[in-house]
Structure prediction request, 162 residues.
Amino acid sequence: MLRRSVFVLSLGVLAPAAWAQAPDASAPPAATTPPPADAPAAPPAPAKLDPKKLVAPKSSPELLERGRLAYSASCVVCHGEKGVGDGPAGLMLNPKPRDFTKEPFKQGGSPAELFVSITEGVKDTPMAGWAHLSEEERWGLSYYVLSLAPPKVQKAKAKATP
Ligand code: HEC
Prediction:
């Protein structure tokens, strides 16, 4: 006990909180481990989102700009800057990211449907879910992805979606 107090005294200046919490002098507090760097990609969202129940916020230049920034940070690597699917990491994938500028959206192309694809990912493809991005970012991404598709493609997917 005496030894411990001497120890505490000498170390007290350095780590008073850690020592105060140590239950037993023979088990010195573990060195403070730094928190894990980047959290791993979010696991797939447990509940399936229903695009029909989602209320899409209005598009705005600010929202689109958020989407543009998030797209260059997270999506360009596969989908390519213009959305044609020519990102360096996309070229080796199976299936490859499709060409947003030419083919209708397979998972539906309304803002809410895009929001679901982006949040939950696309089953059986390398497209992961991005639920860890803020909701605003995901809506911004939905509108930004939509803006990459010319009106003709946007209309085509509107028809393809029930
Ligand atoms: C690892 C590569 C990769 C990354 C990173 C990635 N995607 Fe994908 N994405 C894919 C693949 C592969 C598919 C499935 C094939 C397809 O539909 O293009 C897909 C599908 C999609 C679809 C559905 C397309 C459809 O036809 O309905 C959307 C929307 C989409 N991605 C948006 C995004 C957004 C937004 C990001 C960034 C937050 C992103 N993706 C990041 C590879 C990726």
